[in-house]
Amino acid sequence: MSVIYLLLSVSVLVALVFLVIFLVSVKSGQFDDVYTPSVRMLFDDELVKEKIKTKN
Amino acid sequence: MSKSQCYHCGTSCDTKSFVKEDKYFCCNGCKTVYELLYENDMACYYDFQSNPGAIPTEIEDRYEYLEKQEIQEKLLEFCDENSHIVNLYIPHVHCSSCIWVLENLRKLNENIISSTVDFVKKEVRIHYNPKKTNLKEVVLLLCAIGYEPYISLDNLEKKDKIVDRSLHYKLGIAGFAFGNVMFLSFPEYFEVSEFWLEKYKVVFRWLMLIFSLPVVFYAAQGYFVSAYKGLSNKILNIDVPIALGILVLFVRSSVEVIFDLGSGFFDSLTGLVFFLLVGKYFQQKTYSYLSFERDYKSYFPIAVTKITNSKEESVQIQDVEAGDRLLIRNQELIPVDGILMKGKAQIDYSFVTGESQPVLKESGDKIFAGGKQLEGIIEMEVLKSVSQSYLTQLWSNAAFNEKPISNFRNVTDAISKHFTLAVLTIAVLSTTFWLLNDPSKALNVFTAVLIIACPCAIALAAPFTLGNMLRIFGQNKFYLKNSQVIEKLAKINTILFDKTGTITKNRKKGIRYSGATLSYNEKILLKSSVRTSNHPLSRLLYESMGEVEAITVDEVKEYAGKGIQIKFKKRSIKIGSESFVLKKNHSTNFDTSIHVSIDNHYKGKFTIRNSYREGLKEVMDGLKSIFKLAIISGDNDGERKKLEKILPENTRLLFNKNPEDKLNYVAQLQKDNSEVAMIGDGLNDAGALMQSNVGIVVSENTNVFSPACDAILDAKEFAKIPVFFELSKRAIRIIHYCFVLSFFYNIIGLYFAVTGQLEPVIAAILMPFSSISVVVFTTILTNITSKKLLS
After folding, report:
1. Are residues B118 and B188 located together in one domain of the fold?
2. N-to-C CA span, chain B
């Protein structure tokens, strides 16, 4: 019977965890610049390739 | 990549010049950049996009001032013994390879710890080790690879930019609560009287109440504040009914839950706040890399070189006093009014007036602040300090210091007064009716009316329409400061244009010859003839015939305003206007031409390509029926006749106006109840741009600096000005359509409310449905309208 309380609290807790993660990420500035990281992400790969090329 | 293109920057270059490893470069600078990148193993810079990069500007000891402690301290964002962090604005950042190069600075200089680019703001944050390198070296490295930072007086002042992230927080919390409340209220929608649900109903309802607390007290805060402000100013803005709705929703729902009367409207409440915040977020689109708030400080350098006892020393601009002797190098800005003492000055005043033709000054001439020295080094003596110079004095004018009182009533607030009054009337009337018939339902009906009439759809109409229009304008290179500018644009009835740089082009004027071919001898004769005349057109023609040699002619007769007649040996030449050379005048075009006849044979004409922007006539014709037009210029009225031909009849032409006059003229028009748009470009329009209802800056390159304004228009899109005005008007019309649509929903809702049948589930369906349909409606309509007008 009391399992519903457990389920409710777990589900609310999970939701709260996501909310907190979101708030922390906003606070850390992740949403200030939403363009550059998308490009930066691609560059790291290119760099690795480049290093391999020069070794050969 | 073709061989005639520079491998680095893409400018065309002849193949003989700078070659390295079968790659061609247009200049040594580009080659250096290539080598620099190559040595440091970053050659794949070139793989990403063909021809990235920029030509490095000549670097002299321009950045000496960066070694000064007090300047460094002001520029650095963070500094301690082991690390310095500086944030630099780099106008050249334009493609993904820029990010790549700038974020790999540490490979070029190992003392740079890290660098991070904010592409949208065109800024790079550099973290370096001050023990091994310094700010000057970092900046010089940036210059060397073609990313010269822009450091101006402005950088010294505003240091701490507070980033407002509250909307993100609010949106997150409201969305979180909305989602959870929706789940929790779902069982109630179907009225299943299942045993377990009945048993736990109370828990669910209390949970919903708890979830709605942060929404009401945090996320919806802004609406309460704005409603309170509105009421205390006796304005019924749109936030008044919204705040009222939220309040009633919350109180009634809480009462229902606490006294176990029903489930309340928490789903509608959280949904309402969430949708409203989404609207706010959508409207907030800003072009952070364009600044709309600049004053002269953004143009002016931080420091200049002062000469004391023949020693050079950099001093901060604020410390420059009358009587000082300053050294201005190539490409440096003249920061104060003064007298040229040494050297030949070629000053480009395009920042100030929009005129790109440099002005020649000899020593002893007076030079004004704001010009850029183009060639060589000059020395000047200061007459006035920075804040008292001719140009900068403008900023002490009241228009810049008074905080603009926003007495502007936007389209939503204009309607909300009537709306609020109507809703309150309906609420009171229906409550009275029920009091007389069935008092138990009266309170229920009263609150239901206020809940269902909460103008969510109305409040969303404007943000989405204007926000969408703002994006469409942005795609067409017309960048607005905020969405309110569209509403202001729609109200404009008078448009002022600056002349130089705004309706004329910044680029050099071209000359075209049409007629019988001239022999080389005739060309010599022609060039020698125009050399004798000081008329601007003669000078222009003379300069255009660069490689032809010139001789001394025998006899010159100049007819003022007509032309010149020259005799050389037995030949005679007539050069000048059509009526002078041909004795007739039937030309109808506006281009200026110089006609030539040799030995009484008409040869042909040189046409000076109109320096007015293409489509100027069409723009003016498109505007003339709707707006009062005027040209206001700082130049003399030499071009009055020409302008009169192009412009519609009723256009007022005002010449010889200084920056202050322009501002006052705008103010004068506004006193006569005109809504004025000023379209200008240079710093000399800054006052008028500030004073006008909408200040629009026409800019050939949106990356370079433009004075404070409401909107920046790319000069290439000049011809679209009438369309932009028309679209703004259409946008307002679309908002009105949306109002009609949402009234329709309100009437349906009110039917349920007044008859006392408002169930939470009806509110929960009607509110999001009306909001979403209004958003969809306006998005489709704005897109269709703009596509039709802009194509």
Report:
1. no
2. 33
Confidence band, pLDDT 50/70/90 cuts, at residue B291: low
Nearest to B176 among A19, A39, A40 (CB): A19
Sign of CA dihedral B335, B338, B341, B347: positive
The reply to whether B559 falls in a domain is: yes
Least confident piece of the model among B295-309, B412-426, B503-517: B503-517
> Does any CB of chain B come closer than 8 Å to the CB of residue A41?
no
Q: Tally the domains of chain B.
A: 4
Distance CA B347, CA B374 (A): 6
Asked if B151 contacts B65 with a C-beta cutoff of 8 angstroms, the reply is: no
Structure-block tokens of residue B711: 């909107």
Range of the domain at B359: 296-400
- Alpha-carbon distance of B133 to A45, in angstroms, equals 29
Q: What is the DSSP letter of B236?
A: -
The three state secondary structure string of B468-498 is HHHHHHHHCCEEECCCHHHHHHHHCCEEEEE
- CATH number of the domain residue B65 falls in: 3.30.70.100
Q: What are the phi and psi torsion angles at B121 (to 5°)?
A: -90, -5
**Same-domain status, B195 and B127:** no
Shortest CA distance to B434 belongs to which of B758, B745, B748?
Answer: B758
Which residues neighbour B232 within 8 Å (Cβ) at sequence distance 6 or greater? none
Task: Tell me: do B244 and B354 sit in the same domain.
Answer: no
Single pTM value for the model = 0.74
B345 and B449 both lie in a single domain? no
* Chain A residues within 8 A of B165 when measuring between CB atoms: 26-27, 31-32
- Nearest CA distance, B100 vs chain A (angstrom): 7
Residue A56 pLDDT level (bands cut at 50, 70, 90): very low
Q: Does the CB of A22 have a partner CB in chain B at under 8 Å?
A: yes
Q: Which residues contact B563 (CB under 8 A, 6 or more apart)?
A: B574, B575, B576, B577, B580, B581, B594, B595
Residue type (1 letter), B53: G
Instruction: Give percent of chain B with pLDDT exceeding 70.
Output: 81
Q: Give domain limits for chain A.
A: 3-55
Q: Is the pLDDT of residue B310 over 70?
A: yes
How far is residue B645's CA from residue B647's CA, in Å, rounded to a whole number? Answer: 6
Q: Does A6 touch chain B (CB under 8 A)?
A: no
For residue B452, CA distances in Å to B280, B340, B530 come to 21, 73, 81
